[in-house]
Amino acid sequence: MSKRRLITLWRIINTGLINFIRNLSLAVAAMAIMVITLTIVLLSLIVSFTFRHTISQITDKINVSVYLDNNLSTTQTNQLVSELKHLPNVGSVAYLTKTQVLKVYEQQNANNPQLIQAVNETNNPLPPTIIIKPINLNNLSAIKSFLDEPKVAALQSDPPSYSGQEKQAIDQITHATNVLQEIGVIAVIVFAVVSVLIIFNTIQMAIFNRRDEIQIMRLLGAGTGYIRGPFIVESIVYGIFAAVISVVIINASFQASSGTLQASSLGLLDIGYANSFFDSRFFELLLLQLGLGIVIGAVSSLIATRRYLKFKTR
Amino acid sequence: MILLDRVSKSYSREGKPSLDRVSLHVDPKEFVIIVGQSGAGKTTLMRLLTREERQTSGKIIVGGIDYDKLKDREIPLLRRKIGVVFQDFKLLPNKTIYENVAFALEMVGISNHEIRNTVPKVLEIVNLTGKENRMPVELSGGERQRAAIARAIVRQPKILIADEPTGNLDPKHAWDVIKILEKVNRYGTTVLLTTHNQEIVNKLKRRVVSIKDGKIISDRANAGYKI
What we know:
The complex is a heterodimer of chains A (314) and B (227). Chain A is mainly alpha-helical. Chain A has 2 domains: 3-58 and 169-308, no CATH class; 63-162, Alpha-Beta Plaits, CATH 3.30.70.3040. Chain A has helices at residues 3-22, 24-60, 74-85, 98-108, 113-121, 141-148, 150-153, 164-209, 211-219, 224-260, 271-280, 282-308, and strands spanning 64-67, 90-96, 129-134, 265-266, 269-270. In chain A, the strands form 2 sheets. In chain A, strands 1-3-2 form a 3-stranded antiparallel sheet. The longest helix of chain A is centred in the middle third of the chain and has 46 residues, at 164-209. The model of chain A has no long low-confidence stretch (mean pLDDT 82). Chain B has a single domain (2-220), classed as Rossmann fold, CATH 3.40.50.300. Chain B is 33% helix and 25% strand. Chain B has helices at 42-49, 75-81, 97-106, 112-125, 141-153, 171-186, 198-204, and strands at residues 2-9, 19-26, 31-35, 57-62, 65-66, 82-85, 159-163, 190-195, 207-212, 215-220. In chain B, the strands form 2 sheets. In chain B, strands 6-7-8-3-9-10 form a 6-stranded mixed sheet, sandwiched between helices. A 4-stranded antiparallel sheet of chain B has the order 2-1-4-5, covered by helices on one side. In chain B, β7 (159-163), α6 and β8 form a beta-alpha-beta unit. The longest helix of chain B has 16 residues, at 171-186. Chain B is globular, with a radius of gyration of 17 Å. The two termini of chain B are 29 Å apart. The interface between A and B is medium-sized, with 23 and 29 residues.
């Protein structure tokens, strides 16, 4: 870039910043609506990631348990395990011996010594078990039909468990998350459009206020970019300010919630995780907000200046 | 330097054209006065030359630039080659005199160092040294017009168009402005001046082009003018 162009670019930025300060009262509405838009974006993002985290935590605990017959040989067991591994939608297959199953059972019921005692007294009635972790919980049909085959069913002591109730709960959470995400996306779109319209209006008023100056600039031979540039810089500054303010608002609300809310979660929303997600991704989120703010500002001012600054002669 | 060949301009389809097949040729370094009563078409002619308006028919060539081939995005480049002075000065009200003149250089990317060198020299030519930091409202009409001339000539244009620059001035200040235009012309700039001030025209004794009802009715060297 030539020196002249650099000087011109610097002057455009400088003029834009000066105009931003001069028109601050005019810019407040535009910035406020951008703050709302960007805050909603950030909030939906955090909520969505938190829900996803909650769901994955719950799904991680879900599996299909196949209870084997006590008299199965090692060969039979190994063959069944390897067949299961080759089924579609199977994440992992683990074989637990009777002793291992007992240990797990004891751990799970550590606070119920009577139950453990009763199990021990009967000389470990628990069957050896194969634990299957499916990849997709919504598609268990392949696993189910394989386990239901007569020759496979013959190897089992009891019908397999599909963690049925938990799956239902997960389905509900997933559905709720999807609905919330849709609402978030619609809200973001609505507010983004409103922001663009208000920035439009702000720039139109700024152009109207400076119409004499703009006319003189044109007559003196100022290029399109030199006239248009400062308006675009000005709206980009709105975006930058709005992005920073939205991040500050979210940060402040986390601070406030951790002080006032005793519980670490609000229903399904794990606030503790949301907070740590926000902290660990702070700079990425800030950058994202800045990027969005700049894009909204630049796009709306580009359209507004194109529309309201008429560069053609009759 | 300036060539108009049968140039017409109509603002509406019906009614008389503002300019009607006007042909004019101005040589480099010439000083040409265009006279005529209000509504004769002087300002329309100036607006065509600065491309604020587009001619309805005919050909305009200024400094080698054919206006028919001029694209919209090239208009700023054309205007940078032509200095323009307006009857109502058109100074930026929120800038000082210095800033107003510097502005013409800033927008074409001239360095601050060069601006600091050039602006005082130009303000000296128009006798405004010492008033650099005044705002336009603090100056008299004559001083404002001289500041506007400084702004128009600071980029050393080959052509200076002055549209009724003395229209809002009393005789003394008007004459100050005219003397500066003569000075600019002596430095080698082609000057096109429109006026309906009889006294100025008669004193200057330059080429005078008279326009009436959108037509050139006379074009004489070293001429006078009678209303």
